């Protein structure tokens, strides 16, 4: 059931879009993790992958905010 806070401008919608964007495997993150593992710096690979994920989330949220401002 869709409630009053579930529209296209709600935080639930934004969280769903960010989650959906983050669910697909990122080939860059996989390459980074494999490279980090081969160099013995796996923690640095995880940190880099988390930074990439944060950048994707921020970009997605910013685009959603722009779309809301136009609508």
Question: What would you say about this model in short?
Answer:
The chain has helices spanning 11-23, 27-39, 42-70.
What would you note in describing this structure?
The longest helix has 29 residues, at 42-70. With 71 residues, the chain is mainly alpha-helical. The radius of gyration is 16 Å and the shape is elongated. It has helices at residues 11-23, 27-39, 42-70. It is built from three helices and no strands. Helices cover 77% and strands 0% of the residues. α1 (11-23) packs across α3 and α2 (27-39) runs antiparallel to α3 (42-70).
Task: Name the features.
77% helix; mainly alpha; elongated; 71 residues
Topology:
Blueprint: H1 11-23, H2 27-39, H3 42-70
Secondary structural class? mainly alpha
Let me know the largest β-sheet. Answer: none
Topology as a string of helices (H) and strands (E) = HHH
Please tally the helical runs, counting DSSP H or I stretches of 4 or more residues: 3
- Give the amount of beta strand, in percent: under 5%
- Envelope shape: elongated
Low-confidence stretches: none
Taking Cα atoms only, what radius of gyration do you get, to the nearest Å?
Answer: 16 Å
Q: N-to-C terminal Cα separation, in Å? A: 24 Å
Q: Would you count the extended β strands for me?
A: 0
Q: Indicate the percent of residues in helices.
A: over 70%
Mean pLDDT: 82
């Amino acid at each position: 059931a869709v409630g009053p806070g579930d529209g296209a401008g709600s935080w639930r919608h934004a969280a769903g879009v960010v989650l959906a964007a983050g669910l697909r495997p990122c080939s860059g993150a996989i390459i980074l993790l494999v490279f980090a593992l081969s160099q013995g710096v796996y923690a640095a690979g995880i940190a880099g992958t988390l930074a990439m994920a944060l950048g994707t989330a921020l970009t997605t949220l910013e685009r959603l905010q722009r779309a809301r401002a136009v609508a």
